[in-house]
Amino acid sequence: MKKKMTVLDFKKFKEEGRKFTYVTAYDYTTASIVNDSETEVILVGDSLGMVMLGYGSTTGVTLDDMIHHTRPVVKGAPDTFVVGDMPFGSYNVSVEDAIRSANRIIKEAGPDCVKLEGGVEFADTVAAITRAGVPVMGHIGLTPQTTSQLGGFKVQGGTPAGAAKLIADAKALEEAGAFSVVLECVPSVVAKAITQALTIPVLGIGAGPYVDCQVLVLQDMLGMFGDFKPKFVKRYAQLRRDMVEALNTFHRESLDGSFPSPEYSFNAKVEGYS
User: Fold this and answer.
1) How far apart are CA 80 and CA 239, in angstroms?
2) Marked catalytic residue, from 96, 117, 184, 253
3) Beta carbons within 8 Å of 110's beta carbon, 6+ residues apart
4) What are the tens digits of pLDDT across the range 86-144?
5) Known catalytic residue: 184?
6) Which of 65, 165, 173, 213 is the most exposed place for a label (fewest CB within 10 A)?
7) 84 three-class SS
8) How far apart are CA 118 and CA 169, in angstroms?
9) 52 and 138 fall within a common domain
């Protein structure tokens, strides 16, 4: 059985040069599967809006949605570090509102930390939540909650000015007390510079090989989500295809009468059913 990571382990892993992995989960069953694997970290991300709820973006996800989905993940993955995402609107009104939102996620769902998007502009918020006793994971680069401001789902930090801004954002989050930073959709060379500049781990999704931890959305890497495939996603399985084939086989066998066969049927006996 694997040993569950703690917040302190993140920096320890960084110091020791130990790599680790990080995937999403949004329900009990999926979380329990990840828990049986060697993967160390689960994110209950607001990506559930697109993956689970069929939204066109993450902005429609509510705090209640996040709590509802985080709670069963925590139950299903007792040996895995669980991150609860703070959705759009739950922390960008005021620092006080952000603390209340973080407190709700921790108290009502029970993850090990919260995650929020934004760099320098939200450093004070990160510091306040941390002071309130809630560990915070940062998130910079492509920030899905504000893609309209970024011009869509595009690589960030591709210019000298953009790269400098990301480095400043990452350092500001570290100074504010974030114990790790997610870096999404940035050039590998920029991700390498940020990783080297921080003493806390950088968790990369679409950020190349030089980060401290690799992140993927589970439904993407397992080939379950068919709406689109980001460039950075490697599909380690084709479960959507396999599931459709299984459903079609079930349909065919049900219609031709080969299912249920005697093996899958009950026979009446004097002593009861077996």
Assistant:
1) 23
2) 184
3) 70, 71, 74, 82
4) 999 999 999 999 999 999 999 999 999 999 999 999 999 999 999 999 999 999 999 87
5) yes
6) 165
7) strand
8) 8
9) yes
